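Minutes, project huddle
Topic: does the predicted pose make sense with pyridoxal-5'-phosphate bound?
PN asked that the exact inputs be recorded in the minutes so nobody has to dig through chat later. Recorded below.
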Amino acid sequence: MALHDIQTRIAAAEAAADRPAGSARLIAVSKVQPPERVEAVLAQGHRLFGENRVQEASERWPPFQARFAGVQLHLIGPLQTNKARQAVEMFDAIHTLDRIKLANTLARLAQERGASPELLVQVNTGAEPQKAGILPEEADAFVAEVRAMDLPVTGLMCIPPVDEEPSLHFALLAKIAARNGLAELSMGMSSDFEKAIRFGATYVRVGSAIFGERAYD
Ligand SMILES: *Cc1c(COP(=O)(O)O)cnc(C)c1O
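Predicted holo structure (tokens), as shared on screen:
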């Protein structure tokens, strides 16, 4: 089974990096996947899933959550401010905090609800113009500003440029997290999660290697 293979490879990567078992948690990225594939992974006992769209997640997950206890959902795609309320009600973590306006909205919602999802700041480690995220040189100031809003920022997330060696980006993200005292590193996907674990990933986001290729229509 693909899920079991990935879990085995994660355990081996943790051991190879002298890291405790379970220190790199697997987010099964279920976006776009047909429900029967998602159900098969739920039936095997996996409970941590990633989605990249609020709308899609809100349609897909309530029926599964009624049948499978303990599901945790993480938002790994861009969040529009006007979807923030829906997002904080549905997700246990948001990996894509990338601007002050969104932080302000999340802070207001946290005040109102007395709770907030765990938040990770997305860093655009490759400084790619089309990609979301805070620039590396602005990350320290951004983290400080968001912490001053009393938001529960636990870590950083990155998506390295497709055509570059990801290790440099993983190392940069780990360095920024360390100097800001942030414990969580969300990095590594199907093609590079073992490398990410070597560089300290605490969350790996794996989709197609578990579920198969995504069929977009
Ligand atoms: C889709 C997606 C993934 C998973 O990608 P795979 O290559 O299928 O493992 C991971 N992270 C983000 C942000 C994604 O959008």
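Observations noted during the meeting:
- The two ends are 26 Å apart (CA to CA).
- The chain is about 40% helix and 15% strand.
No decisions taken; revisit at the next huddle.
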